[in-house]
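Input structure tokens:
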């Protein structure tokens, strides 16, 4: 008894890959709920950098873990599961009271290279207990109230370099705080 050869699934896989790569069909993981002008991947990353956005991207996948909106002019909304936010290379001027409050799962926040950013409200991070990495390098900050940073239990790394820090007595706490923390081995040095 001789059996007929079984058809291989290989040609079908190649056709599906070809259709996906040419955009004729899209993967629901990659495209379902992805905002216009953004790219979403199966790692729950939404990449919207440099898209000249003026409003917060809509239609974000519900499971979004990383949202990259650097080099835009946008605002953001209530994303409780968001873990990584990059607001670098924007036109930020001031960070208001509890700005990041809705982002309760935020672990890493990058706000670098915003030449107009000169003020961060003392309670800007008051509701971000999960925050581990904060990078505010290369802005226009002259003072920073460390009360909000001291209150963050998970904070492990702070980037402060490239700011025109004031050496006035009002800013003495900021100047002394990193040295005290480094001596305890609780924070990485990045300034």
């Amino acid at each position: 008894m001789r059996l007929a050869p079984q058809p291989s699934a290989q040609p079908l896989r190649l056709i599906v890959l070809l259709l996906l790569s040419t955009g004729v069909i899209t993967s629901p993981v990659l495209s379902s709920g992805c905002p216009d002008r953004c790219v979403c991947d199966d790692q729950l990353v939404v990449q919207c950098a440099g898209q000249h956005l003026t409003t917060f991207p809509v239609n974000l996948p519900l499971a979004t873990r990383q949202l990259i909106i650097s080099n835009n002019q946008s605002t953001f909304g209530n994303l409780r599961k968001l873990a990584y936010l990059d607001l670098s290379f924007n036109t930020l001027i001031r960070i208001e009271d509890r700005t990041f409050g809705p982002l309760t799962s935020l672990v890493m926040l990058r706000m670098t290279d915003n030449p107009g950013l000169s003020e961060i409200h003392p309670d800007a991070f008051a509701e971000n207990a999960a925050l581990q990495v904060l990078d505010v390098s290369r802005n226009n900050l002259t003072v920073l109230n460390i009360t909000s940073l001291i209150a963050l239990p998970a904070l492990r790394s702070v980037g402060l370099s490239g700011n025109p820090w004031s050496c006035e007595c009002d800013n003495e706490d900021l100047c002394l705080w990193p040295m005290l923390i480094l001596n305890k081995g609780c924070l990485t040095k990045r300034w």
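Residues 1-6, 14-31 have pLDDT under 50 and may be disordered. The longest strand covers residues 45-47.
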